[in-house]
Amino acid sequence: MSRILTPEQEIEHTIVKRYHEELWSPFCRAIKKYRMIQPGDRIAVCISGGKDSMLLAKMVQMLQRHTAIPFEAEYLIMDPGYNAENRRKAESNAQLLGIPYTLFESNIFDVANVQEKNPCYLCARMRRGCLYKKAQEMGCNKIALGHHFDDVIGTTVMGMFYAGQLQAMMPKLKSRNYPGMELIRPLYLVHEEDIIAWMKANGLTFLQCACRFTENVADGHGESKRLEVKQLLKTLRKDNPSIEENIFSSIHMLQLDTMVEWKYRGEKHSFLDTYDD
User: Looking at residues 244-254, what average pLDDT do you find?
Assistant: First the structure.
C-alpha cells in the first residue's frame, strides 16, 4: 500500500524524481563545479517570493539532509514594501513548501519608485545591500540568490548590446562592501523553462516582480531591455537550438589572446602590451 504524501513531500518528490535531471542534478552540479559551499558555511537563502528563489530555498533545505558537507542555512523573506496580498502570498508559499523563514521589512519600494531613471536597477542594489546587512547580523557568511541559467545568458547579451562590454554574471562573488560576505548562485545551471514546468506540475503560483512600479503591467514585466533580449533569443533559438548553450560556453572558454582590450581587477590591458615580445 503506497504511502500518502503531504503537499510538501509531493513537491520534494517531484524535484528529486520527476525533475531530477532538470533541477536537482544541475543544482548539485553547480554547487560542486563552482565550489559554492564549504564546511561550516552559514548561508542566508534570500526569498523574493518568486518561483526561482522559492525553488532555491526548497532545494537548499533538501541539500542539508543529503550532503556530507556540514553547513547551516537561514531563509530570509525581505518585504521591501509589498502590498498586503503579495506579502501573504510570499509567506503562504513558504509555509506550503515547509520553509522556516525569517521575515523583515524595508522601505526600498518607497525610495526606488520615485526615481525617474533606472528604478529597477536602484531597487536591485538596495535589496542586495539590505540582504547582506541582515545576513551578517544573523551570523551568515554567504547569501544565496535565485539567478538561473537564463539570467546568466540575458545579462551577458545585454552587456554586449547595451553597455558595450563582455561581462558575465558570476556563479559566486565576494562582496566589496561587506567584508567576509560572499554571494552564491546555486541555480546557475538550471533553465527557467524547467523551473516553470516544475511549478505548473505542482499547481503552484508565485509572485512576479510584485513592485509598485510594475504592478499594473501584464505578468509583472515592463517593456524592459531584458525582455527584449529574451524575445530575441527565443527567435534565434528557432534556427539555432544551441544558441544559449553556445553563449554560456563562450563565457567559460574566453580566448584572451584574441581580445583587443580587457580589464582585470579594474586595470585596463591591451594586446599591444605584449605584441612585440
Answer: 96
The count of domains in the chain is 1
The alpha carbon dihedral of 49, 36, 136, 98 has a sign of positive
Nearest CA-CA partner of 104 in 144, 132, 72, 142:
132
Report which residue type is found at 110.
Answer: D
CB 58 within 8 A of CB 83: no
Contact between residue 92 and residue 204 where contact means Cβ atoms under 8 Å apart: no
Calpha distance 39→71 (Å, rounded): 6
Total length of the chain = 277
Q: The domain that contains 12 carries what CATH number?
A: 3.40.50.620
In a domain, 259, yes or no: no
- CB-CB contact of 210 with 49 (8 Å): yes
Q: pTM of the predicted model, to two decimals?
A: 0.90
All residues at 6 or more sequence positions from 262 whose CB lies less than 8 Å from its CB, including other chains: 256, 268, 269
Query: Residue 199 sits in which domain range?
Result: 7-221
Which residue is it, cell 515592463? 222
pLDDT tens for 61-90 read 999 998 999 999 999 999 888 889 999 999
pLDDT tens for 189-201 read 999 999 999 999 9
The per-residue DSSP string of 233-276 comes to HHHHHHH-TTHHHHHHHHTTS--GGG-SEEEETTEEEEGGGSTT
Provide the b/e sequence for 233-257 (b: ≥16 CB within 10 Å). Answer: beeeeeeeeebbeebbeebeeeeee
Q: Does residue 196 sit within a domain?
A: yes
What is d(CA 122, CA 99) in angstroms, rounded to the nearest whole number? 29
